[in-house]
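User: quick one, fold this
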Amino acid sequence: MTQENPDSIIVAIKREMGNRKFSKEYEGRKMTPELLSAMILMKLKQDAEAKIGPIGNAVITVPYYFNEPCRKATLHAGRIAGLNVIDIINEPSAATLAYAWNTGELGRPDLPDKEKRILVYDLGGGTFDVTLVRYTPTHFSVESTDGDTFLGGLDWTQRLVEHVCDRFRGKHGTDPRDDNVSLLQLTKECEDAKQELSLFEKTNVHVNHAGNLMQVSITRQEFEKLTADLLQRTIDTTEFVLDNAKVNPEELQAVLLVGGSTAMPAVSKRLQDLCGITPSRELLPQLAVAQGAAIHAAILQAKATGDAGDVGKAVIKRLESVTATDVNSHSLGVEITDPTLGKRNHIMIPRNSKLPVGVKQRFVTNLENPQSICIRLLEGEAEDVAACTFIGDFRLDKLPESLPVGSPIEVQYSYDVRGHIHVSMTELTTNKSASVEIAWRDILDEQSLDSFQQLVAGYAVE
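Assistant:
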């Protein structure tokens, strides 16, 4: 995994979690996102154990906008790394937990039961999401969330890479993008330059390719112009989250910055312009999520064992009365056949519905004398079925003979806080029904998990 073999370097594997089509070939082995993420977790576990001793249990954080396959893949990565993953917590929820704890509010029933709203803007290296949270000292509730698992600081770096390559090619006639080693070295230079531009108004990028050396100067203003559309995408998402919850920016008590990429000055400026308040730096953006996860892990351990040491006791004393309410980050629906548009996704549970949630709707059959009815369950916002995530399906068989076109079918659809989906359908002429509960199928079976655990055990992670 060195500069001599840049093809072996993995970047932004978090974006590929849950993607069954992605893999990398290394030493003749197929490396899946779960396996690659597990090796990262092994390194973290190894470093932590060198400081505090053996680690068995873990809480892992994920972007709120992760769907269930992405979350399941993350859970599998933890197991492959030798961790007992006791919970998966959403990153903005963890950050809010850390924020409210750090301000001395969370778990304080003696304080006034006054609601506050904060906006958690989380721009990391590979993913972005923004979440609106309402909380009191003893309860916090997610009101609205949205995000993009393919937008992050890496995209800002890539814009700078493209700019520098264009400048180099214009002068020397050769392109560093044509050579993997040159491109890797330049990407590292541009990542450093991006970080420097968060501190200084101007910096230089040095390019070494095909025997030619070049220094490219870049100002913060130029960099912000190059990446303005990326930042605008995050602002558009932020406005959507506020609009979806019918909340005016003036109603916010704080805007919390999470993720290392929020260090870019343009981020704070745009958010201040939008919300009218200076974004909070109460917590270090790089540590906020980890701190919240640590608090969450401590309370879980304290509740499970009844004795988790001084830290656990202090946490449980503050947090034993705290409750939370979540929303679903993706819409849930069924595939229907429209006489004009053909097959499309019909949303039954819109995203940002408070959990648990249940709905009931009536549909009609579109065939004469059907022998059975199949319902396909989908996750996603698009009408196009191909653009949605397939959840599962189930069938109602042995329908009565001569059932006419337009016969009513009632569908009940529910989603709980565990991420479990329960759907039932009833043919209302005879009241014949069928139902299914889906806890999302595992991406890897037990045999694959065991094989991967044995495989990673053979690697030395340095």
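User: anything notable?
Assistant: The chain has three domains: 6-151+232-325, 153-228, 332-438.
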